[in-house]
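retry 2 of 3: previous attempt timed out while embedding histidyl-adenosine monophosphate. Reduced batch size to 1 and resubmitted. Inputs unchanged:
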Amino acid sequence: MGSQEKIAPAKGISAIVPPDAAVWTRVEEKLRLCTEEFGYCELRLPILEHTELFARSIGEATDIVHKEMFSFETRGNASLSLRPEGTAGAVRSVLEHSLADRRPGRFWYCGPMFRYEKPQKGRARQFHQFGVESLGMASVESEYELLSLCAALWRALGIEDRLELQIASLGSDACRRRYRAELVAFLQQFSDTMSEEQRQRVWQNPLRLLDSKDPKLRKLLRDAPLLKDSMKHESVSRFAALCQLLDDAGVRYTVNPRLVRGLDYYTHTVFEWVAAGDLGGQHTLCAGGRYDGLSQLLGGPELPAAGFALGLERLMLVMQAAETLPKVAPPRFFIASIGPAATRYALGLAEELRDRAPGAGVQVHCGESSLSSQMRQANAAGIPYVLMLGPEELADGVIRLKSMVDGQERQFDRKNTEALLDWVGDRLEETD
Ligand code: HAM
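retry 2 succeeded.
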């Protein structure tokens, strides 16, 4: 067969490969352990859902649904989409399996999400989220719990000093509708100076304009009405109660009345954890809020809920800048062998070592190459001890061991592997 052209990955979609993949697994493990300490259980959610699910929950007019979904028709003419986020699927699955009957339900999930966005640092088309959803609780205490879980995650990952919490209240649905009308009236005065897209937005999703990057529009918006001014007393005092809980617990935050979320399902509290500087053009590592109406939008019962999701790609960037990414140790032993007889012996010895010293890690060279090339391999992989089995060692009935750290060598009798196994066990105790 002639040589074929290589196939590039799809734009904005990449594999996570060693050594990063092992680091990711360890970070995910920390997130999981910390979240389960708060009583949250894992949900493994479908990656494909009916497009309708996202259109109804995230909102038809949002950028995510309007421009960023990977959607396709199945052979049976159903429209499916790769999930752009996890909340909609989490609520749908919880309703499907009646998990909300046992209130409250506390869930977490982790996995790939897909958005057709322009890739850049901290922004990919396939990215990964760790998400947490708390269903069945309407109290501000449940929002406080989510925020204190976030704070516990940042401490566990050593990035608590790099993030700032911004919070805001969108008020109830009624507050939001009132505000929307006020904002549309305000923006209409300037429709002559707006682009076609901005004019359309005024009608479709005016709140989203508050987040605009256009300097001209930003200047106009300085005088725009603020949502907090159209909020009813109950919503204002609800938000004050959350702020009080955060103050009492010493959680630092900034109230940002212009916080805009790109998903329509939020009511009352919304929040973002932003990282200054570490994320390229993106600033938000983690975002969430309350979404009391979503269950009913999906045909379910009244079910107050709140949650958040953090982006793992962005988390790695923040941890890298903070130098807190976990170190992944290579195996501690490498068995170099020359010739088929020695290699067969090496395979058996490796099994004995793995049984005797679980966690040590034993890698065997399974191919044909010179001893020096095998030593180079072990060195490049950072493996500290090499056991050598060549024709000479076989003939003399010994196993030679070399420390790659200080160059010291020692020798063990092949008939008495106990001495070697003991020595390996001692090394483990020294470094544990
Ligand atoms: P979101 O703000 O759309 O919220 O996304 C949450 C996080 O996912 C972002 O802060 C970011 O770290 C990450 N993220 C989003 N898009 C990308 C991308 N293209 N590339 C890399 N990372 C990205 C949600 O998805 C809501 N479901 C959060 C939520 C859960 N609200 C309530 N419960």
